[in-house]
Amino acid sequence: MKEFWSKRAKALTPYVPGEQPRERKFIKLNTNENPYPPSQTAVAAIREAAGESLRLYPDPECTSLREALAATFDLKPGQVFVGNGSDEVLALCFQAFFDAERAILFPDITYSFYPVFADLFGLSYREVPLDECFGLPLEPFLGNNGGVVIANPNAPTGRAVSLCDIRTLLEGNPQSVVVVDEAYVDFGAQSAVPLIDSYPNLVVVQTMSKSRALAGLRVGFALGNENLIAALNSVKNSFNSYTLDRLALAGAEGALRDRDYLRAITMKISSTRDWAADRLKRMGFAVSDSAANFLFVSHPAVEAKALLDGLRERGILVRWWDKPRIRDYLRITVGTDEEMEALCQALAQLVPEV
Ligand SMILES: *Cc1c(COP(=O)(O)O)cnc(C)c1O
What pLDDT digit, counting tens, does each position of 143-161 carry? Predict the structure, then answer.
């Protein structure tokens, strides 16, 4: 094994995405996908783009989509960068803003792609422990670091930080870039986008995968001042000029036009989340406050791994990590009301009655 692999390839421990089952029909609550279809406007735009013009390369600058994003967020097109999913945008951020010499900081419990990117690009990093309740301590993130990366709301805990705390992080790190990964912001957290004009060290990353139900289209974007966006373009154009294809560009623009639909499905998911959280609490689960489209839960009487397996036997997939502080927790994506009802009924068979 690994014959002919480069030293770098040999040393990697890749990110492991949640399962995408091919055979059986599962209730899929394991990868934070949206249970609702994407906007019809988006689908129609993709159909429209699926024609003769695919012969031609797409616009390497993604001008039209960047203009639409700028209008949506009240920014200039030069403050917008787009990429093939926010995973790619985040990877480019790690290369554009961080150096090997000074350690970048992120929480010990967060999106597990951050350490993978850091290792891939040979960056040093330090994982700052969240507090007992998975809250973000500000002090350790202030000053003397090579950069800060946080997810807000955080994954997999669902906990959000206030704009005030983000300001503190920005002001405490005038020499380094603070990346705020807002993959789940549309489900109930405050976005840092309004701070962009005040802080030259802020980059906000968002995605169309979760709130806009377009995980299959692969569109993510970064928002920040022109200087930071230029660094992202410089790295991108040293790697792949055409990261977004014509269908993705068209679909993303279509999705942006349908603001009412975004509002409708995110509000629906938030209300499903809130009743499901109440139900689980009444079954004895500890449920952390979630501003995202998932719940992070544990039960005092049954191990999370046993719940994971029991749910799987009952046709329901959720996510579990065999990691020190979160071994007792499951992350459950918020599905439709019917799916969450099925989840609650399955869990009722697996935990002792209260
Ligand atoms: C899902 C997720 C992403 C990646 O989203 P894509 O745009 O689909 O690549 C990024 N950050 C966090 C925290 C996520 O949960």
Answer: 889 999 999 999 999 999 9
- The one-character DSSP state at 3 is T
The neighbouring-strand residues paired with 128 are 107
Closest residue CA from atom 2 of ligand 1:
183
Question: Ligand 1 centroid vs 282 CA: distance in angstroms?
Answer: 31
Q: Is 70 exposed, middle or buried (0-12, 13-18, 19+ CB in 10 A)?
A: middle
User: Which domains are seen in the chain, by residue range?
Assistant: 7-37+260-348 (3.90.1150.10), 40-258 (3.40.640.10)
The reply to whether ligand 1 has any atom less than 6 angstroms from the CB of 163 is no
- 172-184: pLDDT as tens digits: 999 999 999 999 9
H or E element, residue 220: strand 220-224
Is the distance from the beta carbon of residue 156 to the nearest atom of ligand 1 less than 6 Å?
no
- pTM: predicted TM-score of the whole model, two decimal places: 0.97
